[in-house]
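queue> holo job accepted (cobalamin)
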Amino acid sequence: MIDLNLLTQALGDLDEDLVLDLLKEFVATGPTEAEALEAVGACQAGMGTVGALFENGEYFVGDLIFAGELLTEAIQVLKPVLGGEASNDIGTILLGTVHGDLHDIGKNIFRSMAEAAGFAVVDIGIDVAIEEFISKAQEVKPQIIGMSGVLTLAIDSMKETVDAIKAAGVDAKIIIGGNPVTKESCAFVGADAFTTNAAEGVKICQGWV
Ligand code: B12
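queue> job finished
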């Protein structure tokens, strides 16, 4: 089993070689999906360290960008053990990061896991305008709409988007995800579910289809 504390620390230190070596060795041992999810959690905790060091002024925006690329690379290494081959036919999820927010690492992790679970995911990217969520939903008729955001202001964007989607008569369950999402913000936004954990998000979506 991989040393999860070392992995968290290596990601927080932005030690690319160590992160990737640890993960490649781990994947070569043929871990279970549950073990791979623990590794994702350890990487996510490392991003928490990066955020804290950014707040303290020890890391700069360039470090955030590098951290984002490193986590994306890390998830690519883990992808083969994050879920078996599945046909994309258990349901459709329309997914995007809400307007004003450019963060997409968490969204992309959720997309990979949802696809591995057999969902067809229509990913409409970052900083998605309200009208785009509505027009794409009317086009692909998803059972589920997923919204991502990590900035505090994303909560207001989510509320505006959910209000407009409902006003347009789109019939879909709505799940919101991202670090600032809570039970309270979920009620404020008017979504059906919330999570700060991609694996839990996939379970919630599976329960809906
Ligand atoms: C990497 C990063 C960046 C990268 C983003 C790269 C990218 N491609 O995404 C870059 C450099 C571009 C960036 C830019 C900025 N950032 Co930034 N960034 C981060 C950082 C370090 C990590 C975010 C992250 O990827 N976390 C890891 C992922 C895996 O976690 P997650 O998103 O929560 O996702 C998980 C779950 O929530 C869930 N999930 C996520 N989405 C969804 C969706 C659904 C439907 C479901 C079911 C689940 C789900 O699944 C994931 C896996 O479990 C955070 C610090 C932190 N601790 O979060 C700051 C942070 C978010 N950034 C911050 C800031 C201030 C900025 C900038 C304003 C900086 C600047 N001065 O320019 C800009 C904002 C640009 C904008 N308009 O969006 C602040 C936000 C403060 C706030 N309260 O609003 C933070 C918290 C840093 C800090 N502590 O100050 N950032």
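queue> The first strand starts at residue 92 and ends at 97.
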